[in-house]
Amino acid sequence: MITIFHGEDNAKSRQAYIELRKNSEEPVILPGDSLSLSELILAFSSDSFFASNKDIFIEDFFSKRKLIAKETKEIIQYLQNLKTEQNITFWENKKLTPAALKSFPKAKVEYFSLPQTLFKFIDAIAPNKSIELIPLFHSALEGTEPELIFFMMIRQVRILLALILGSNIEETARLAPWQMGNLQRQLRNFTAEQLKKTYKKLYELDLTTKTGRTSLTLTQAIDIFLLSL
């Protein structure tokens, strides 16, 4: 059976994937980005007495290689034609495209989405809105770890700054039209200078929390940041 773990919530998908891996009697972990067809065939042709109990775990296969690449196609074709009762599990560090998921139409797909409360908070970030932002932040905390929320805050401000400055970064290249529309509306609340200052504050907050130069929890530090925005 083929199982695919993917989605925006990396922490929860990784946790579920690791738990599955721990419960395996004989896990074989393969790096998806550098995996060759010969390595995969070798993993299935072990002489181990427990070979039939082996579980194959492949990490970041779709996320770090092109579907149109010759060897990627060969690996997919090999797995599609494979006659085995062994479990094959893919873990991806992001949400996969429909094209990637169609590679294994009969696979069991475990999708881990982020709560809408998180996106509502992230999309509402703007100067002089602390009265609205703090309740939204604490609502997002009910279903999301503060570390992930903080990461999403930094990412959002970085994208907004790139858009207002006309810079090309990886995140802007992958934006869907509806995402661009939301970001353009959010941009109306900022000037370029305000975004630069906001990004600098987030960088400093990140530095102080990671180096242990503050007695505040990350949640408390974000609350203070929102008050000063």
What does this structure look like?
By secondary structure, the chain is α/β, with parallel strands linked by helices. It has two domains: about 1-110, 3-Layer(aba) Sandwich (Rossmann fold); about 115-229, Zinc Finger, Delta Prime, domain 3. It contains eleven helices and five strands. The chain has helices at about 10-20, 35-45, 70-80, 100, 115-125, 130-140, 145-165, 170-175, 175-185, 190-210, 220-229; strands at about 1-5, 25-30, 55-60, 85-90, 110. Strands 2-3-4-1-5 form a five-stranded parallel sheet, with helices on both faces. Helix 6 (about 130-140) runs antiparallel to helix 11 and helix 7 runs antiparallel to helix 10 (about 190-210). The protein is elongated, with a radius of gyration of 21 Å. The N and C termini lie far apart (about 50 Å). The model has no long low-confidence stretch (mean pLDDT about 90).
Question: Which key phrases capture this entry?
Answer:
elongated, alpha/beta, Zinc Finger, Delta Prime, domain 3, 5-stranded parallel sheet, 229 residues, 54% helix, 5 strands
Number of strands: 5
H/E topology pattern:
EHEHEHEHEHHHHHHH
Shape: elongated
Sequence stretches where pLDDT stays below 50 over 5 or more residues = none
Distance between the termini: 50 Å
CATH class of the largest domain: Mainly Alpha
Helix content: 40-55%
Cross-sheet strand order for the largest sheet: 2-3-4-1-5
Q: Predict the CATH topology of the largest domain.
A: Zinc Finger, Delta Prime, domain 3
Shape-level CATH architecture of the largest domain: Up-down Bundle
The secondary-structure class comes to: alpha/beta
